[in-house]
Amino acid sequence: MIYTNTRSSFPDQVVPEAEKMTYEYGLQVANAIESEWFRYGVGGERYLNNYNVFHRRRLYARGEQSIQKYKDELAINGDLSYLNLDWKPVPIIPKFVDIVVNGMSDRGHTIKAYSQDPASQKLRTDYATRILNDIKTREYIEKVQQTLGVDVSQTQAMDTIPASEEELEVHMQLDYKQAIEIAEEELISNTLAKNKFDLVKRRFNRDLVVLGIGAVKTNFNKSEGITLEYVDPANLVWSYTEDPNFEDLFYVGEVKSLSLPELKKEFPNLTNAELETIQKYPGNSDYTRNWNGREDDNTVQVIYFEYKTYVDQVFKIKYTDQGLEKAIQKTDFFNPPASDKFERTSRSIEVLYSGAKILGHPMMLKWELAENMTRPYSDSVHVNMNYQLCAPNIYKGRIESLTERMITFADMIQLTSLKLQQVMSKLVPDGVFVDVDGLAEVDLGNGTNYNPAEALNMYFQTGSIVGRSMTQDGDLNHGKVPIQELKSSNGMHKIQALIQTYQYYLQMIRDVTGLNEARDASTPDRDALVGLQKLAAANSNTATRHILQASLYLTLRACENISLRVADCIQYDLLKESLINSISSYNVATLEEIQNIHLRDFGIYLEVEPDDEEKALLEQNIQVALQQQSIHLEDAIDIREVRNLSLANQMLKLRRKKKAEEDHARQQQLVQQQAQANAEAAERAAMADVQKNQAETETKLQIEQGKSQFEIQKIQAEAEVKKQLMELQFQYDMQLKQLEVQSKQSQQAEAENRKDQRTKMQATQQSQMIEQRNNNLLPTNFEGQVNLPQQGEMPGMEEQTIM
Questions:
Q1: Is 688 exposed, middle or buried (0-12, 13-18, 19+ CB in 10 A)?
Q2: Sign for the pseudo-dihedral over CA of 234, 237, 242, 248
């Protein structure tokens, strides 16, 4: 059973998930959408009203609006037989529409991806910390490099890192990019190019200007991958909202006209009997047949819609004997009794159901839970719809557009143009009045007759007239001026008044839209300064900036959906292979990182190029800096390439500061070089004086050395003579001394020899006496006894001694 709200035709959302997936629930949703948009109510049929309003605005934007209202205005009792006018509308509104749309197309932008998950934030913070540490310890690192030849920096690139914290901030915004961010930007750009997003963007830009609302659809299928499609707002249906960005929609849909073959191709499960029933079903002719002016029974209108609701994700938390927890997903009917072994936990998440139904026919073609739903990873309980809408000027459901502001005044301009044609058609050329009686009184005197033809020839060729103030009878001639110019009417005054009226309504269009003369340069003031002209153009851009912001919003949301759908492409091998081929410039490591993209959370934003006024201001600042020589030409080139105006100005300030520091350092170096040169010059002068004094001193010293040398040589000669004499005296003394020593030695030797002999004799005698006592021998007479030679003595020595 379907529970419905008492105050809405939509079914109750507080029902189980299984009930929401039923055919009956989807049919009730589709019937509720039909009831809101295709049933005749107090204000008429909502869908048809929207379609007619948008169709009318588009006709005016093309200069093809209906001319019946102008005929009714100029007709008298419906009779136009006396009017021969060109009823073609004056294309005033198309000019202003083209100015705004083309101006929006000129504003280029760059897609930036910012990885904001914790892992990427940590990488970014660590990188900045390493550079900051190197900045603070630069002097120490350079000293170690010069002394030991070892690079102890954390970045290993001291010559390329920023010099200060301000430069580090600019470096992190301009130059630092993680590989995953580069890959993400490449993927988005490749997807946009593949789907020809430039053409899609031009179409919804025109819709934003003409209709006041723009729409784009992102989708995914296994054969084409991520697709981007233009959506005509006239075919859209959506839930009531007052949000310009349509963030609070709970359903949105699109009406498409399909032929029966196309219907069978898209929904092959339809039987022939069902197709025959669909073809014969009359339905409501107000919205099922001929609402678009086509007479074709083989065409049916199908509404495709998305319906946002919620489901409860229920998990059974089971506790194991080892103290672990295991989560098992269950249906929303799961409601077990309290137990120590497990418990129930749940959360509510948004989901999308996709449906398709034939308008006016009680048959659902499709009702299913949407596949590959787009969910922001930073908030996984929410879901994004595939349709992205934006209407910058919406109030109470009514959409205001720039074209709507101009329609009233465009009608008045058209009427003024028709009146101007009418006045011009009734204008009569100016003529002349010829007084024949006055001509009869004139005698030219050459025998010719002064008739009207002759008088007119003279008047038109020379502008002169011959006349007489008196008649031949002497009376006053009333025709003294025989030819007079006739003013037929005051048509020129009417034309001037109509032209002024035309200009008034044209100015009113400029006033209500903000598109002044400076925007399109239609009537530039030659006396106005160039700066004032640019200022007026900038003010006009400000008046239409909300349209540009709406266009950028749609582009940004499309890029966000592409970023979130990349994970869907990775899941399928063919799409993954196509994706890898499209970004083959990246290495394998980056591609492997992309495979884990579901773990990443990106912030997608658009970096819009500055407009002409902002570029002019930046260029003016650059030229002033170049004239003051506060930056280099290379710095100016780098600054011009920065798309972000604030970063460009910040970079300009940093480059000026760096150039000033370089100039100061150069000046200090020049001062040091000059001081060093002066010191070297003074040193050279002092060295010259020292060398001069040294030369004089050396000369004097040489002279004195010469004198000293002579004295030394003289002393050396005398000493040599004395030395020879002393050596000779020494030799003589030595010889005398030797003789004395030899004499003393001879005496001593002789005395020693005699002493030795006596000692020997005493020993011999003593030995004999000992032997005598021991053997009791007779006494020995030692006188006259010959001493025997002792052991070791040569025979004959005794004899010699005795002798």
A1: exposed
A2: negative
